[in-house]
Design goal:
Elements: E1 30-35, H1 41-57, E2 61-64, H2 71-79, E3 82-85, E4 96-99, H3 106-114, E5 118-121, H4 125-139, E6 143-147, H5 153-159, E7 166-169, H6 172-177, E8 186-190, H7 196-209, E9 213-214, H8 223-235, E10 241-245, H9 251-262, E11 268-271, E12 287-292, H10 298-310, E13 315-320, H11 332-340
Parallel strand pairs: 1-12, 1-13, 2-3, 2-4, 4-5, 6-7, 6-8, 8-9, 10-11, 10-12
Bound molecules: iron/sulfur cluster.
Binding site for dimethylallyl diphosphate: 69, 102, 152, 250-252, 295
EC number: 1.17.7.4
Family: Belongs to the IspH family.
Length: 359
């Protein structure tokens, strides 16, 4: 059985003594800490679903794909007894499997049924909303342009809902060249974790080329992705350096680096862990912006802040652009079993900025 490949953690490098880092001349060193940052409601729910499943049913609990795109989360749940697999076929017949927050296609549900798996579907409700849109538009005879990134699990799941009707458009360049059959029923939908600005550029080009293009009824780029981008846009113009905590396969984390650079940060880097920061980045840096992707527990941001304090960035100013209190209930299959056992079925208070128990 092949487990999901988790990259080998970077070995800590020999660190420079903080006094070797060239300080900015005549400027105070400080951190601008973006908020909202970190865990969104969909990630919170998915991670808690695996934790509660491990507690209630006992290990092992299989998880198809990474439950959320974060190395620390995957490693920690693996230590507790979760087994991450790439494909449904790798789960033993009749075993229990959790589907990740990114969603799965109907084909995956069928594969699970064929293997008589006991499934817990932790697909984020905001991803499910996009799936439903795809099904509805396809039934109504629309051709659908899905703005998203090839190979991302969410895109694979959404495309699987209506493969004949959906054409993927990844960026403005593809919007300029995509070919479609003549139709006056054309609609666009999108992946939930894209750059808002780039998506609007892509859609603008599509609209010029295909005037019949219809908008989806509401935003597909989710509230958490949008809020984290708005916060980093506020921090970036004042930052000599922006550090984004998040994994390389986390779409929304990678977008935060791009958005920071597009909005005035002199430099921006993504790190999974504080130990990955490079001291060379801090020469002549007075203000460091810090944020994190929607799949990142805040404990990893706190590690980074401790390291920054070692480098003389003691002053931390929070820059908050929105409050978040959205919370999703646990997957229905899990709630039902917990209720039958007389156990609490409520999710813990979730959403951004919560110090999740994963450490
Ligand atoms: S980033 Fe958005 S769509 Fe993805 S899990 Fe979080 S809330 Fe759901």
């Amino acid at each position: 059985m092949t487990a999901v490949t988790v990259p080998v953690p970077t070995m800590p490098r020999r660190r420079k003594d903080p006094t070797e880092i060239r300080d900015p001349e005549g400027a105070e060193k400080k951190v601008l800490l973006a908020a909202p940052r970190g865990y969104c409601a969909g990630v919170d729910r998915a991670v808690i679903a695996v934790e509660r499943a491990l507690e209630h049913y006992g290990a092992p609990v299989y998880v198809r794909k990474e439950i959320v795109h974060n190395r620390h989360v995957v490693e920690t749940l693996s230590e507790r007894g979760a087994i991450f697999v790439e494909e449904t076929a790798q789960v033993p017949q009749g075993a229990r499997v959790v589907f990740s927050a990114h969603g799965v296609s109907p084909q995956v549900h069928q594969e699970a049924a064929d293997l008589e798996l006991r499934t817990i579907d932790a697909t984020c409700p905001l991803v499910t909303k996009v799936h439903r849109e795809a099904v509805r538009f396809a039934k109504q005879g629309y051709s659908i342009l899905l703005v998203g990134h090839a190979g991302h699990e969410e895109v694979e799941g959404t495309m699987g809902e209506a493969p004949e009707a959906i054409t993927l458009v990844q960026n403005p360049e593809e919007a300029r060249t995509v070919e479609l059959p003549e139709t006056d029923k054309l609609v666009w939908i999108s992946q939930t974790t894209l750059s808002v600005d780039e998506t609007m550029e892509t859609v603008g080009i599509l609209r010029e080329r295909f005037p019949a293009l219809t908008d989806p009824p509401s935003d597909d780029i989710c509230y958490a992705t949008q809020n984290r981008q708005v916060a980093v846009k506020k921090v970036a113009p004042a930052a000599d350096l922006v550090l984004v905590v998040g994994s390389a396969n986390s779409s929304n984390s990678v977008r935060l680096v791009e958005v920071a650079l597009e909005h005035g940060a002199k430099a921006a880097h993504r790190v999974d862990f504080a130990r990955e920061v490079d001291e060379e980045w801090f020469h002549d840096v007075a203000t460091v912006g810090v944020t994190s992707g929607a799949s990142v527990p805040d404990t990893l941001v706190q590690d980074l802040l401790r390291l920054l304090a070692d480098y003389g960035y003691h002053e931390v100013e929070e820059v908050r652009t929105a409050e978040e209190d959205l919370m999703f209930s646990l997957p229905s299959e899990l709630r039902k079993d917990l209720k039958a056992a007389g156990l609490a079925t409520s999710n813990k208070p979730g959403g951004a900025d919560r110090e999740h128990e994963l450490r």
